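Reviewer 2 asked us to include a model.

Predict the structure of this chain.
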Amino acid sequence: EDCINQARLSLERYVQSSEEELLKAVREEGTESQETATSFKVRRRAENTQEWKEKPLHGQFLRETEDQSNEETWNWLKEGSLKRETEALITAAQDQAIRTNYIKATIDKSQIDAKCRMCRDKNETVSHIVSGCSKLAQKEYKKRHDNVARAIHWDLSGKCGFDRNDKWYNHVPESVLENENYKLLWDFSIRTDHNIEARRPDLVLVDKSKKSCHIIDVAIPEDSGVKEKEFEKVEKYQNLARELRRMWEVKTNVVPIVLGALGTVPLRLKGNLKGIGVDTSISLIQKSALLGSARILRKVLEM
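Predicted model (structure tokens):
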């Protein structure tokens, strides 16, 4: 309906500005709308968004993420890079339209335990399945996390002049890569003079010419917690950053690479990637995270 009305307004504007004799006659018989096709599109988008946000269940995702995400959160829908069934699954997950045990018990009023079928500890919500289950953490969450980190390592390897596979998803990161200009560490426990608990970030990039060091750590948390997770990552590695400044005599900063499990892109992510010179698009690592979440949902719900 919106598309038809937008086309009608565009055609009406054309008729009003045309110098053709027949269209002039049409113009004399009609009335001119006060709204243009562009203003109509903007107005309807705002109205649709507000209606969506006000839905008690299906608007939950938008309400919880609107103050900590940007437009690139919807890249996966705009670009259509996922298969139809995967796109449908992620959309259903965002809309809380997946029949988890919690939904069956509280909404459907079924006589079923609302607890997670995997851990039997917490309620089985979509958010719990994709980011909060202890039984899935060591294998499924780690696999999703490592795929995102692998894409970043692949990009940095190319930037630093190291050998790499043609495709990022076939890339096998080495623990230590080094040449005359750069050093790149992958999941490497760094020896320090002082006792520091958090000293094994996902990646460490040292630029020898600039005497700079980036401590890079990846996380795929619940979508409503991406902003908090970014802060948590920065705080976690502050002691290591201070120690590396002293030991290696380099400028050191902590760079969190955080994506929501259902696609939320934090406001700072683009700047964080640019700061470490990563050319990999946000869409690529977002797609990797979403494919991981879809795999987890299928595995749990098909059991």
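Strands lie at 176-178, 182-186, 203-207, 212-219, 251-258. Residues 21 and 27 are 10 Å apart (CA to CA). We have added this to the supplementary material.
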